Amino acid sequence: MIIKRQYSIRDRLLYSFLMTAALMCIVVLYSFISTNSVAVSITNAYRTNVELNEFQTVLDRVESSMERYIGLRTFESIEDYFSWRGKLDSMALRFTTSLSDNPVLLQEYKTKKLMESFLEYADKAVYARRGNNVSEYSANYGSALRVYGYLTESVHNLNAMYFKRNISGYGVIFEDMKKVEVLSICILVLVVTVNFLMVYLLITRITGPLVDLSRAADRLAAGDFDVELFASQSRDEVGNICRAFDRMTVSIRDNIETIRENAAIESALRQRELEIRELYKDAQLKTLQAQINPHFLFNTLNAGAQLAMMEGADDTCTFIEKTADFFRYNIQNMDKDTVLSDEITLVDNYMYIMKVRFADRMNYIKDIKTDRLDIAMPSMVLQPLVENSVKHGISAMKSGGTITLRVFDLDGILNIEVSDNGAGFTPETRDKLLYGSYFSEQDSGDPLKIPSVGIGMINVITRLRMFFNDQKIFDIRDNADGPGTTFSIRIQHV
């Protein structure tokens, strides 16, 4: 079975353009070659006249330079004479050197002989003038002028004969030009006609099915879904559109029935959604009721501190007081801004509690070298950083764990650093925390499954950037002098 190849609309347009372009190129190329040939013929026809006029000009220069040297006897005039004489000799090479029955060639022969006589007398006059032989250069100078007159007349006659011969050839050239013009017009008309027919047939083949398709679409828009399918066998773009329209029509018919079936299911789902919302609100209420009242916890810690004091347990009393101060700060500054000194005090209280917990396993170093402790900042910023260092940095160490808090001024910038000598961060975790991709990869839809390090660190970084309007205020880097991590906050002077 032979399958007939069907070209796409793009291919048809491309072939039409290429064919038209090829025909136009042929027309332009033919016109260019023909015009160039005619131009060359005209140029060649009148080249002899141009060259003869140049010969006459050089001849005049030779005569004038000779006359100036005879009269003035200057170095410039004799130099000009020999220069122009050489050019005249080279130009005379185009003249025939033998007799001929052709009148033009015979005139060229006479002109050449007269030129040779003129140059002979002129050379003798110049040499005699150089030798200051008055009688000899006068006689030769007069002969040279007489021959120069004959030579000028001969050149004029030869130029007239050249022109007469060229005029007879111009008629042939003009007829060739007319033929080229007529042929070019015929070819151009043929190209335009062929191009018009190709475009007309191509547009008719495209627009016919599209008109039928538009009418069928109007029927669908009016709600009439019983339109006939096209079942097009064409393999071009229009055929593809018709087949896609057939698939769409069938799909619409199927979807209408599916929509009706889903309407009842959707109504039941909405009712179920309302019930789930009521259950969710009830669960939220129960969760809130189960939370511990922080004020009750704070008051209980104060009572415990007083009891320890009365019993003489000073260390226990101090521990409970530090814990109470820690919770008091959280309660009072939950939604407020604070100052750097209060944040440092909170870290001191927290580290006291951790020292009790870890004993000699952990050291706390505080290095404050600035008097700008009254600078405003968000609350609960430093403590989460210290807690992260304790929990994820040194909690697994059996001994030698160190937390360092440094505050200092450098180049007009207040630097706050929290460092540890623990395990540190992986580069991937550091980049996720700093550049905001941590939650997008860790959040699986359940808030309880997001690691606390991500929640705390992202919270601190976000609040610092928003408070100081500085995206580069916070950084995480590895320690340069050993293992561990340093959290750095750089605050510009305000």
Individual helix count = 12
Spell out the helices and strands N to C.
HHHHHHHEHEEHEEHHHEE
Indicate the CATH architecture of the largest domain: Up-down Bundle
Largest sheet: 5 strands, mixed
Approximate strand percentage: 5-15%
Which oligomeric form is depicted? single chain
In the CATH scheme, the class of the largest domain would be Mainly Alpha
Keyphrases for this structure?
alpha+beta, Four Helix Bundle (Hemerythrin (Met), subunit A), 3 domains, two-stranded antiparallel ribbon, 71% helix
Give a topology summary:
Blueprint: H1 9-72, H2 75-91, H3 103-130, H4 134-221, H5 237-290, H6 294-310, H7 314-332, E1 337-339, H8 340-358, E2 362-369, E3 376-378, H9 382-394, E4 401-410, E5 413-420, H10 427-435, H11 438-442, H12 452-468, E6 474-478, E7 485-492
Parallel strand pairs: 2-4
Antiparallel strand pairs: 1-3, 4-5, 5-7, 6-7
Explain this structure to me?
It is a single chain. Strand 4 and strand 5 (413-420) form a beta hairpin. It is elongated, with a radius of gyration of 55 Å. It is α+β, with helices and mostly antiparallel strands. The protein is built from 12 helices and 7 strands. The strands form 2 sheets. The protein has a 5-stranded mixed beta sheet with strand order 2-4-5-7-6. The two termini are 87 Å apart. Helix content is 71%, strand content 9%. Helix 1 (9-72) packs across helix 2 (75-91), helix 1 (9-72) runs antiparallel to helix 4 and helix 4 (134-221) crosses helix 5.
